[in-house]
Amino acid sequence: MTEDESYANPARQPDTPARGWPRLLPLLTVALLVGVIAPRSAPARSATGAYALVQDVTTATFSRMVDLATIPGAPDEAVVVSQKDALVRRVSLSGAFAPALLADLSDRVKRGGSEEGLLSIAFSPEFTADGRVYLYYTSKFCAPGVDRCSHLSRFAVVDNEMVEESEVVVLEIDQRLSSDRHNGGRLLFGPDGYLYLSVGDGGGSGDPLETGQDNTDLLGSLLRIDVTGQERYAVPPGNPFNGKSGADEVWAYGFRNPWRYSFDSLTGNLWVGDVGQSGSEEVEPVIAGGNYGWDCLEGFSTYEGEGCGAGSFLSPRAAYDHRGFSCAVTGGYVYRGEQLPDLYGWYIYADFCSGKVWAVDTTDNGDPVAIIHSQYSISSFAELPNHELLLLTFNSAIYRLTCRAELNRPQGSAARACNGDAGATASPTP
Ligand SMILES: [Ca+2]
Ligand SMILES: [Ca+2]
Question: What is the pTM of this model?
């Protein structure tokens, strides 16, 4: 397996012979695009409606957008992070004002590799009082003796300006390998008020340093730390390896590149999409202390049997392979909005290369359902305050998940909830 193919997706370290796909992808997907597809057969209470993506946050037309966070206390506003520019911009969710630059971190963000750059942002839950915002990025400046690192840093926002000089590096992740891949990662505050960060295995095919199964380091893990009121951070009580073997910060491990994860806004459950190696992209709910298998397992299959013993591995809720131009999962959200009632309680996720979007019911063991085949390079998801879902893309646009009926709604008429039984067309689920 080669290491030199260059993908656009910061989550993706490609391993299959796929050089040139990003350039070919638009042509291929135009040919394949059927707009909206529905499964041949689906569970009775399923997502068989005719779903679609409609452009939203229409002033956000930046290159390589990888994260969007709503601003506590500012209901119409959000910030959007662009990976390679290392810029943070304020945007209006309704389009009421033009985008404004909030921060330029290009002086410190390392951006050479396709998976490097400014990767995520999260506002303190106490933002209206403490003015703190957290960013995660690959850094040009590492601690002495560290060759390659990523930083979780805190900044102060004063009078709507993010003060770049106020940076405090809360946590430096030693990425160890010479590979620039598999840096993770997303920052999100959980419903428990603690800050979570997803970190990849540091790159290299087959996790050569065996970081995935090593819970004493921070790579290949989901981390949980307490930053509120702290100069840097404290380890929350209840972290599964606090006071025993394993790093105190680790919440769960055995991941390859858990690029995007989220919390179910109803239940608080954490769901992750873990980017695969040879062809198994997986999504799963995450529990404290869980071992999600990499690199003993990839998806449901054995990957590297040596030294794995009878480990206690947790299986994905769903996995898919690389057929149909799929290459890297982008974890989404459990849908809790009102517009798409058939999807309520389903976890929505996508593939960066194929542009497909799937839904899987979180309340049963039914098969995932392909709900959209788009032509977009879907890099991330965001949840609006009303729980509708946004999809960020590398196509310089943000889209909202909606139903085709809503797209065809006459101007001025009342919004309609998506009717999953209307307009569905049978189509194979690749
Ligand atoms: Ca290995
Ligand atoms: Ca796994």
Answer: 0.87
